[in-house]
Predict the 3D structure of the following.
Amino acid sequence: MHTIRPWLYVGKFRETQDEELLRQQEIGGILQLADHVNSPNIPSLYISVEDGVALPFNLLKRGIEFVRLEKAQNRNVLIACGAGISRSVAFAIASLKEEEHLALFDAFQQVLAKHPQARPHLALWQSLCEYYDENLPYKDILKLILQHKTMY
């Protein structure tokens, strides 16, 4: 599990099942993108999102609204997908964009700084660009990943 902000975490599906880890990180809401897990006393939203497939805008909006609502209620939010590197990262980028009014590239930089394995799939990145009407070629994301990788 990666702490992106004190209130925002990105993780793997298996971490949604680890009640002790959720308690330690004081997770108060979970956006689940791989499969539904019933976590007692933790509000959650399951959205079926496929990696490598364009993200329908209504699902993106629903996920972002859930994250923002949980944050507004002072809850730490975990966004989790299968491996915690693509789908969850895409929603984390969108959440930072909405909450902090960042450009998509800047939001991705913020996520990558805290989660070096962050790799939003091309189709998900393009969905974010279309949703926010920002034209940032995926090659720029790949360059940033490569630069970040060589720094460490």
